[in-house]
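Researcher: Can you fold this with heme C in place?
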Amino acid sequence: MRPLLLVLLGLVVGAMGATFALSALRQGTPFHSGVMAVMQYHLGALRANVRAKQCDAKGSAGRLSRMEAMAGDIREAFPGMDTPFYEAAERLRGILDGAAKAPPATCEALTRTLATVGEACQSCHRQYR
Ligand code: HEC
């Protein structure tokens, strides 16, 4: 009797575990939110650097290139969108690529770069978000 009970218990616990795992997968942070969140994070960090007047080119380049990598993932993160959407993503990626390769060396220049980047984010959000 006891072994049978244990087997039944095992089955129930196993089924519950599978259900939890499946719902965790479904509720997990979707890739597209992650891509956006990472870009938002670095944009915020760079803005904070401007406020703190810490605008060294090397530090900015690192963040800008991480944002560029994320922008390059927008296509995969948002499948099935129209061509203008992917063009907007590519425009953002191009701006970030240029900025990461020739990183702004002063806070004034970084402010201008961030304004351009922010505008590229907004122009897509206005239409698609
Ligand atoms: C090509 C279009 C496009 C570009 C460019 C773009 N976004 Fe987005 N973003 C979207 C869309 C679409 C959503 C809505 C996603 C959803 O809610 O399912 C979104 C949502 C977001 C969110 C909310 C994410 C969430 O799910 O909680 C943040 C934050 C964000 N974007 C930040 C940025 C930043 C920062 C940039 C620029 C560096 C940027 N985005 C550039 C299309 C874009």
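Model: Folded with heme C in place. The chain is about 85% helix and 0% strand.
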